[in-house]
Design a protein that fits this description.
This protein is of the alpha/beta class. Helix 18 (453-464) links the parallel strand 6 (442-448) and strand 7. Helix 7 runs antiparallel to helix 11. The longest helix is centred in the C-terminal third of the chain and has 33 residues, at 743-775. The two termini are 39 Å apart.
Amino acid sequence: MRPPPHPGLLLVAIREIRFFRRDRAGWFLIVVIPLISFAILAWTFSSAVVRGLNVVIVDMDRSAASNNFIDQIAAAPGVRVTQRAESLTTATQAIRSGMAIAAVYVPLSFERDLLAGRRPQIIAFYNTQYFTAGNIASKALRDAISAASAGFSPVREVRLQPVGSGPLVVEQYVLTNPAINYAAFLLRAVMPTVLHVIIAIATGYAVGSEFSRRSRRAWLRCAGGNAFVALAGKLLPLFAVFFVLLAVDALILHAGFELSYRGDIGLIIIAAAFFILAYQALAVLLQLLVRNLPLGLSLTAIITSPAFGFAGVGLPVLAMGGFAEAWGALLPLRWYLQILIDQAARGSPTQASAFPFAVLAGMALGLFALAWWRLRRMPTERPEQHEEPLPTDGPPGLRHAFIAEWRRVLADRSVFSLLVIAPVFYGIFYPQPYLGQLVRKIPIAVVDDDRTELSRRLVQTLDADEAVSVAVRAPALDVAQQALFAREVFGILEIPPNTEREVLKGNAARLPAYVDSAYFIIFNRTLQGILESAADTNIATTSRGSREDGAAVRTALAALSPIELVTEPLYNPTGGYASYIVPAAFVLIIQQTLLMGAAMMAALAVTRRGLALWDTPAALFGRALAHTTIYIPSLALFLIILPRVYGFSTLGQVGAMALFALPFILATSLMGQAAGFLFRHRETAILIFVATTLPQFFLVGVSWPREMIPPILEQIRRVFPSESAIDGLVRINQMGASLSEVRADWLYLWLLAAAYFGIALLAARRRIAARLSDAS
């Protein structure tokens, strides 16, 4: 007969493995959801370079020159001309309804003014409410129009007299990510962010279940009463799984996207271990403090779900306010991503990552020590589990179901927190890292090897630009590079010797600009500031000795740039990051909190005796109507009040938003109820829905262009009501679209509501029949 295993680390680990093998929800969380999320994200970003964005053309001139010009724009790789509209009104409707991301307006007399050297204006309107797609379209149009206009100037051989008209030409050298590969930028950060939520939720579930369905005494007995062994044994199996998942993440990036790891691989591996341990220890500590599984999971979700915004990847840390910067510094995710980007993408020296590595290691070890101390000090008796009493069902009918659901929500603290308190909290907390809106005064380094009046004037112009500031004046390029690795600067402009001499001779003087593209907003703004400063210096040089509005200057400008491009951002005119990301996130927050709350109520109710009549159409619809009325304050907060408080665009009509939100809330409630009838335990709703939030957001088409989402994923993503709701509500509220312009999304939400009503009805009847069968 085999002797019983001795208490110790191995026995605790074996006990944990057996628990997750039996628990389907836990196994699904730690294995299936991460792999599915990785696959969806990798598939979403499989077209790493954005191309073929839809553009509308309004050609009022309709001349041979304008047709030739438009043909050259259509041949540009970044955009695709999908429509030739009759007027700007038609083009605007196409942008509002989502048929196009930008429009190009060619005015009357374009050909005549072009031949006369009068620099006709071309106006490019682009939708900055969809920030990534709009800015990519703007850049693609700018590049296409610049290339197309080069062959159109009848005065391009003219040279300005007197001597001194040579232009400064910025040569762009993209560091870190020379192909401007969006997968290299986003996937490196998004995949660990998805995983860090799963790490914390799964670990919290493993510990919190000891206070509900399992036994903490048995856990400690398996460890021989040693709290350190008990904690280490519980964390070790999950740690191994998550470490393998991080390796899978690295393999996907390396093999699937050919993204190399340029820095210290050993440092990255050790940092990954501390990253996992930090979030495991944080989740353990929260569960040991509250000793309530649903509440502990809710707190864990509150900390981890918005962490991506505070990590400084989307909007950089230098654009954040004091609170957001301080809160982000308390999150292990920020420091791990800094190490990962510095070592994997930027190829920084090891010592450049010493400080974030020390902070990450200190957080991991400190949180583990606190969790160990809390476990040792915890009383041995099991805390009493007080379940909030739920009102029992009475006579059937829609009215009773409506009233009873309201009573249940008010009686259940966990669900009340999700449906009522959480939206208010997230409405205030989530936007904090983005409220800076714009990135200003990005530090750059200048290596001035010319040291002339022209170079000094260029440096002064750079320092006066809104986008950049000269933080380092380096004596040599290698000194500036060290400042770049240390994150003191994010770009380097070199002014070579003899720059002024070449300008005075009338030749083009080339200025190498080395710009870090590890963070795309920083890259775009830094490059924008350098290009603007060079252009302003060129104008000042061109007008020397002449009036700026004189014929000589106008002729020179026509020779250099025969067509004047005017870019007009729409709906988010300042290009604010919060104005773009927060309205869409608000809709997703509404969905996720309601999904979890509705699912938790359904899963809990069918396990309690005395709750009959849950499987009638009136009961389902009554509860959905109750959820709709519960969410009226949240909808008003997210769609009306907070956009005005934060200064977002608010062009929509309240009536149109209300009519659109109705099927969204009904569909979400019915989806949550259908899921709840399938879950054995109420906390499963938190496990599943929290872990899927970030992949959902990248499938909406706001942060990643819809044209780049694979067709199959385009259909799969619409299983969730938020995918259509975000598109419709953002277009109504921020872009002023009418209900008819978002009719397709609106009708689809009604279709989802009907489908989930049928699914919920079948799931409820099956679950209640199974419960009655077990009882008999």
